[in-house]
Structures are given as structure tokens and as C-alpha cells.
Amino acid sequence: MSNPADSPRPTRPAIAWIGLGIMGSPMAENLLKAGYPVTGYTLEPEKLERLTAAGGSAAGSIAGAVAEADVIITMVPASPQVEAVAYGPDGILENARPGALLIDMSSITPQTSVDLAEAAGDKGIRVLDAPVSGGEAGAVEAVLSIMVGGDRADFDAARPLLEALGKTIVLCGPHGAGQTVKAANQLIVAVNIQACAEAVVFLEKSGVDLAAALDVLNGGLAGSTVLTRKKDNFKNRDFAPGFRIDLHHKDMGIVTDAARGVGAALPVGSLVASLVASLRAQGDGGLDHSALLRGVERLSGQPAAG
To answer: Could you tell me which residue ranges the 3-hydroxyisobutyrate dehydrogenase-like NAD-binding domain spans (predicted)?
Structure first.
């Protein structure tokens, strides 16, 4: 009789990870912790060193990273970068194996995701768009919200992997649906941060204990994940980037363009998009999006802190 301990352990699919930035590095490391073999590629050598120190492998090219991968995950800043890594003779589609699953976790336009899925399908490569919400802290803690677009069978196949990265994982519809939901997410987050920033300046100018005020506000109907995650940024004027203004500016462009395309009015969202753009134009694009507080301070006649 065979000993169950002698039975081969199920192997996890081999992962190629493209893009090891603020979000991508901790996410790839969480897959390593969950037992997935991860080969990474990025333009920053120090990020490859970080991956190998965590137990992953480094590739010298996209082609080298994806050639033997069962699953390819991309986490890059915007649509042009997704297109750059996906297309062309050195890109993913020309070098991945037929049957591989490409999961794009970048935040890009819904149409880019639809076009990518169509082009990949011609190569026999399956695609999911799976953008995330939760910022750097959510990536590190593996508690991201992951909104997915694509086929149900591919979603079901990817779910165990996604569960190593997040806690709320939902198939939102066909290709592009994940990006549409992410655009709505970024709209809500930006408006929420702006409202919190205005409240902070109002409270401080009124002479109220800011820490006490934010604690009690966060315990009531005004409470939110945004306030929980960002209240220390506001109190300490700590704007080290967890999610940069530059990227939120890009996302506000996505949601305003997509809303225009479907005939949805965004009166508050359009205003906040302008405030994000203004902050970026004043040189704050590299700061965390909680730095919207700096814009409110300037409008209120006081020097921007931080």
C-alpha cells in the first residue's frame, strides 16, 4: 500500500511577473510566500534584486520571463506601458505559450483591456483584466480588492492565485468590466480624499484637536477606508507615495473619458479631477494622493505643509 506522504505534491503554476513597482513588488512577494514560483522582469535592477532576495527569479527580458510561464501578471502604470510590454516581437503575446493566462492588474482604460483580450485570443492566450484597490498597504497585507473582467472559467482558474493577493475578489463582467469598476473606485477615492482634506483644514482653522476629531468622525457615518488609511498622512503631513498623484491624475482621466462615452455626468468628479490636475501642475505629482490636502491649504491662504 502506498504511503500518502509519498504522493507527489500538487505543483503551483509558474508565474511571470512584469512590473515590480510600489504595488507589484509586495504582490509578487506574497505569491512567493504562498508557494508560487515567480520569475520577474522590470526596468529597475534593484527591484529584481529585491525579488530574488525574497526567493524569486530574475529575467533579463520579457521574453525570458514569460517563455515557460503558465500565468503572466502585468502591473505597470498605464495603458501605454501595458501595450509596450504586450505587443511587438519582444512582447508577451509573441513569446508566451498558447494556453497561458495573462492577468493584467494595471489600471488602464477599459478599451485597452478589450483590445488586449482580442489580440491575445488570436494567439491562444487567455486574458483577465484584474485591477486592484487598497494601495501599498493593501498590497503588503494581501488584503486588496480585486475587480475582474473576463470569462468565468478563466476567473475560476485564477482565483486561488488571486486569493494570495487580496480578500475581496469579484468577477464584474466581460473583458474591460474590471477596469470600468476600477475607474469608479478611483472616482470615489479621489472625492473622498478631497472631502477629508477639506475637513482637516476646516477643523484645524477652527482650533479643534485634529486627532480627536478624526477619530470620532471615523467612528460614525463619515468613517471610511480612506480616512482609516490616510488620517495619519493628514495629521503628520506625511505624503510619501503609497499611490502617487500622477497615477490618480491618469485614473481621473480614464473615468471622465469613460463617463463621457456612456453619457454619465460627473459634476463633483470633474471638479476633483481638476483639483488633482492642479496639484500635479504645481509639482506635487510624485506625492501620495493624500497630498490633496496641500491644494486645500493653498486655497485657504496658508502655506502647503509636508
So the answer is: 176-294
pTM above 0.85, yes or no: yes
With b for 16 or more beta-carbon neighbours within 10 A and e for fewer, the 223-246 pattern comes to ebebbebbbebbeeeebebbbbbb
- Reference 235, options 253, 218, 211, 259; nearest CA is 211
d(CA 73, CA 62): 11
Q: What is the pLDDT of residues 36-63, one digit of tens each?
A: 999 999 999 999 999 999 999 999 999 9
Looking at 47, 182, 230, 250, which residue is catalytic?
182
Alpha carbon separation from 52 to 43, 58, 71, 141 (Å, rounded): 15, 6, 19, 20
Task: In the chain, count H helices and then E strands.
Answer: 14, 9
Total residue count of the chain as it appears in this document: 306
Residue 58 and residue 171 in contact, taking contact as beta carbons nearer than 8 Å: no
pLDDT digits (tens, 9 = 90+) for 156-189: 999 999 999 999 999 999 999 999 999 999 999 9
What integer pLDDT is reported at residue 210 of this predicted model? Answer: 97
Secondary structure class of 134 (helix, strand, coil): coil
Helix 245-262 with 267-279: angle, nearest 10 deg = 150
Q: Are 192 and 226 in contact (CB under 8 A)?
A: yes
Active site residue 182: yes
Q: How many Cβ atoms sit within 10 Å of the Cβ of residue 123?
A: 15
In the numeric block, which cell numbers belong to residue 55? 526567493
